Each structure stands twice: as structure tokens, then as C-alpha cells.
Amino acid sequence: MYKLSLSDGEWKLMNLLWDKSPLTIADMVSALRDDTGWTKATINIMLNRLADKGAVRIDATGPRKLFYPLLARDDAVRQEARNTLTKIKTGGLGLLVSTMAQESELSDAEIDELYRILKEGRHGHD
Q: If one looks up domain 8-69 in CATH, what number appears?
């Protein structure tokens, strides 16, 4: 099972790579310019850290380094959810779900999906 924690900045880079890959450092600098203002050097350090963690693969065979995600988005989200639930255990799951629903302004389709997931979870515990 995946046991890797990503920083907020690493999430930004991984989301770029999950949405479209491979990417170059220049691609990422451009995509994050308005949001973060990170330099090429900053992004390079973070990508090397992600590679050391096994989350990113670096292909340096061409004229420019290309970066690919090795970590699946679903695996990262599941682990982050587990970490979050462990951290805030005392607040209760109801408070967590209620806060997420209010803060993220869920669409009707997302609410229907949440109901479906909860019903499946209930049947699994009958």
C-alpha cells in the first residue's frame, strides 16, 4: 500500500502531471507562474524530491528533462484522506463531511455520488 505524504507544493506539481504528462520544468514554471511565482530552481528541487519519494519519473534522455507521474492520483487521494481522518479523528466523520460539503459547494451530481458511496459503505458493514 502507498505510504507517502505530499506537501502542498508537491500536490500542485503532481496535479499538473496527472492532468497532462510528460511536462518539462518550463511547462510547470509557466503553469504555476500566477499561482506560486516559483522559479525553475524551486520546481527542480521539488521534482527531484518527488523522484526520490518514487512519485515522479525523470526522463533525461532527450534535450530537455521530461517528468512523468509514477504515483496514481487515486492512491495519493486515498492516502491523504486516511491521513486527514487520522489527524482529525476527534471531530468525527460527520463534521468532516459536513464541512467538505459546505466549503466545496458540491454540485448535485457530486452529492448524488456521495450518497451512493455512503450507501455502498453501509451495505459493506451489514
A: 1.10.10.10
Helices (H), 20-107: 25-32, 40-53, 73-87, 93-104
Cα–Cα dist 119/65, whole Å: 46
Evaluate whether 76 touches 14 at the Cβ level (below 8 Å).
yes
Q: What's the CA gap between 16 and 21, in Å, rounded?
A: 8
- Positions of CATH 1.10.10.10 in the chain: 8-69
Angle at CA of residue 105, ends 103 and 108, nearest 5°: 145
pTM score of the predicted model: 0.74
Q: For residue range 63-77, what is the model confidence (pLDDT) as tens digits?
A: 999 999 999 999 998
